């Protein structure tokens, strides 16, 4: 059975150029759509030190993490990756790339010989440099598949894009 691992930020976010409060992060919405479609277990990367609800404060922290190569700790996941062949990995694109917490997950988890399906949410950058970072961080035996990039402001109508993407696997 596949597993969906994702990192998502809820609280204040930027949608259509405006700051808005959200109960669920955009990436979480897409992760749940994927999990329902492929009947997958869902596991969220939860930082030990939560990101601020305030959007600007989150941007400041995430930029500092990127510049200083700081890898936030995350709560243990309840997934036995030795038993999983297909792993969907979701994240928001921050500063044109993977959030450092996702990079930490990739470095800390044995993903040898796994089939990896990346998906992201963004507000105009698409995957940015994320695919290159994924290729750098994943073991050579992992099979990185075509990803899905969803504009954050359009996650509520992303079901069709998710279905089309999943139909290609």
Overall mean pLDDT score?
93
Rg over CA atoms, rounded to whole Å, is 15 Å
Helical/strand content category: alpha/beta
Shape: globular
Spans of at least 5 consecutive residues with low confidence: none
Secondary structure tally: strands: 8
Number of helices: 5
Helix content: 25-40%
Q: Hey, roughly how much beta strand do the residues contain?
A: 15-25%
Order of helices and strands: EEEHEHEHEHEEH
Oligomer: single chain
Verbal overview:
The chain is an alpha/beta fold and 169 residues long. Helix content is 31%, strand content 23%. The protein has five helices and eight strands. The protein has helices spanning 26-38, 55-68, 100-108, 130-137, 159-167; strands spanning 3-6, 11-15, 18-22, 41-44, 86-92, 115-122, 143-144, 148-151. Strands 1, 4, 5, 6, 7 and 8 form a six-stranded parallel β-sheet that branches. Strands 2-3 form a two-stranded antiparallel ribbon. A hairpin with a 2-residue loop joins strand 2 (11-15) and strand 3 (18-22). Helix 1 (26-38) packs across helix 5. The two termini are 14 Å apart.
Question: What would you say about this model in short?
Answer:
The chain is built from 5 helices and 8 strands.
